[in-house]
Structures are given as structure tokens and as C-alpha cells.
């Protein structure tokens, strides 16, 4: 496991703090910021064991200690527009997808809004918590969990996989973290440069089931549709026989997942 270290040539990972055990690395960063601890832009908090990890909408994230990557990244985002919060989500999702794709191949996809997928199975996820003060986007706390060397999961968790399940071999956690930090550094730079079209195109290109006909479920109804866009606010646009319908997080799901 990585010791407290840095990737000194990068912004992302310029400071890495390794914790043996913590409830949530996102909580750790939020608590540190509330105490005005001087954590630099790009700080990574890495947990060997995270016992109360969270996903989107407070869903629980479970991971065997020492086998997976569970970490949070702190970004100082005051120089980014508040309106571009979902572009940060897209940039981080693309960076993770690129990293995973180099390991497992083109089955790596982004499931809206930011799940890490391999074919039809979930491999990880992202939880971004933005801190806004007045009209300024002060910080983004980006929690990332990726199933790496865990091969067995609780029976009640379906459609789940890991890198080692696919490779039938363990993968070095420090190597994966280094690659993730490098790619997130690159894509954060693309966002800072204002290249939003590049981000839109890359996100759409890797989006799970983009422009494919599938059955969806929303508000108790089942219907066929195609994902045709994810807008700047993160809303999902689905083309149906009744026109384009727009959905927020947790308002729609694939019928077969």
C-alpha cells in the first residue's frame, strides 16, 4: 500500500495522506476544511479501510479492506464557474474511464452520471460534494471507489465486478492510483482551459448505452427510449415515442439493471 507520498509533478496527488481506517474519506476532508486545516489543491486522502463510504444520494459503498481503491480528492475550484459543476463530474468520469479502459479494454464505460462500468457490471463510482460560499465555488471534494482486487461480493449486490475478476489476477493499487491521478490532472486542465466541447464529446463517446434502444423505468412506468444527451446541468435526455423526456438523478433507471 502507498505510504504518505506525492506525485510532485502533478496537481492531483501533490499531497497524499494514507489513513488506515476512516468512516469516509469525503467526511475526513470536509471535517479538515471546517477546522481550516491547510490542505493544498490536489490533496488525496487514501483509506485502506473505509467503513461508512457513501455513493450518490447517500447510498452505501461497500469495499473489502485493503483490496480496493477508496480515496477522495480535494480541488480548490474558486477559479471555475459555478455553472460548470457537472463539467467537473464529466472530466473526472472521463479520466477514470480512460484509466480503466487501458487495463480492461473497451468494455469500460461511464454509466450516467458517473458510475464506473465494465460491460453491464458496476466496478466503481464517484461522489462529488461541492462547497459553495456566496457566489464562489470554493472546493470540490471528489470521492472515488473502484473495485480492484475484491473478487467476492455480498449475494444481494448484483451486476458487480472488479479489475481482478476480469483479469483473473491482482492489480497493483499504487500503480492504479498513479494512473488515475495523472489522467485526472490532465482532464482537470482541459476543464480549466475551458475546452467544454472536448469534455462533452469524450463523455458522450464513453457513455453507457448511449443512443441505444432500451427499456427504462420512471415514475412507475416502463417505456422504450434512447439516451441522446446529458446537458450542462447533468440532466439525462431520453428520446421516446412521446418526444424527449428529461430526468434528474434517481428519477430513471434501466429496467434490466
Would you kindly provide a written description of the structure presented here, covering whatever features stand out?
The chain is an alpha+beta fold and 257 residues long. Helix 2 (85-104) runs antiparallel to helix 4 (173-192) and helix 2 (85-104) crosses helix 5 (196-205). Strand 6 (108-111) and strand 7 (115-118) form a beta hairpin. Helices cover 25% and strands 32% of the residues. It folds into two domains: 15-205, BirA Bifunctional Protein, domain 2 (2-Layer Sandwich), CATH 3.30.930.10; 214-254, SH3 type barrels, CATH 2.30.30.
Supply the key terms.
257 residues, alpha+beta, BirA Bifunctional Protein, domain 2, SH3 type barrels, 2 domains, 7-stranded mixed beta sheet, 5-stranded antiparallel beta sheet, 14 strands, 32% strand, globular
What is this entry, summarized?
The protein has 257 residues and is α+β, with helices and mostly antiparallel strands. The chain has five helices and 14 strands.
Write the layout of secondary structure elements.
Layout: E1 15-19, H1 25-34, E2 43-47, E3 53-54, E4 60-61, E5 69-76, H2 85-104, E6 108-111, E7 115-118, E8 121-133, E9 136-146, H3 163-167, H4 173-192, H5 196-205, E10 214-218, E11 221-230, E12 236-240, E13 243-247, E14 253-254
Parallel strand pairs: 1-2
Antiparallel strand pairs: 2-5, 3-4, 5-9, 6-7, 7-8, 8-9, 10-11, 10-14, 11-12, 12-13
Helix pairs in contact: 2-4, 2-5
Amino acid at each position: 500500500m502507498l505510504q504518505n507520498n506525492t506525485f510532485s509533478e502533478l496537481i492531483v496527488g501533490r499531497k497524499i495522506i494514507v489513513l488506515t481506517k476512516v468512516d469516509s474519506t469525503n467526511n475526513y476532508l470536509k471535517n479538515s476544511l471546517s477546522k481550516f486545516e491547510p490542505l493544498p489543491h490536489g490533496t488525496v486522502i487514501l483509506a485502506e479501510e473505509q467503513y461508512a463510504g457513501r455513493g450518490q444520494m447517500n447510498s452505501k459503498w461497500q469495499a473489502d479492506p485493503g483490496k480496493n481503491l477508496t480515496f477522495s480528492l480535494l480541488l480548490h475550484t474558486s477559479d471555475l464557474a459555478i455553472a460548470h459543476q457537472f463539467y467537473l463530474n464529466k472530466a473526472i468520469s472521463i479520466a477514470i474511464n480512460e484509466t480503466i479502459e487501458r487495463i480492461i479494454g473497451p468494455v469500460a464505460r461511464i454509466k450516467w452520471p458517473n458510475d464506473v462500468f465494465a460491460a453491464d457490471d458496476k466496478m466503481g463510482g464517484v461522489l462529488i460534494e461541492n462547497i459553495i460560499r456566496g457566489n464562489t465555488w470554493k472546493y470540490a471534494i471528489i470521492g472515488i471507489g473502484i473495485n480492484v482486487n475484491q473478487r467476492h461480493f455480498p449475494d444481494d449486490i448484483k451486476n458487480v465486478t472488479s479489475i481482478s475478476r476480469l483479469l483473473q489476477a491482482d492489480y497493483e493499487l499504487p500503480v492504479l492510483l498513479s494512473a488515475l491521478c495523472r489522467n485526472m490532472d490532465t482532464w482537470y486542465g482541459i476543464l480549466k482551459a475551458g475546452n467544454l466541447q472536448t469534455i462533452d464529446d469524450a463523455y458522450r463517446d464513453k457513455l453507457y448505452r448511449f443512443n441505444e434502444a432500451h427499456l427504462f423505468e420512471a415514475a412507475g412506468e416502463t417505456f422504450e427510449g434512447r439516451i441522446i444527451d446529458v446537458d450542462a446541468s447533468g440532466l439525462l435526455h431520453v428520446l421516446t415515442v412521446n418526444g424527449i423526456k428529461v430526468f434528474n438523478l434517481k428519477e430513471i433507471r434501466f429496467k434490466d439493471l
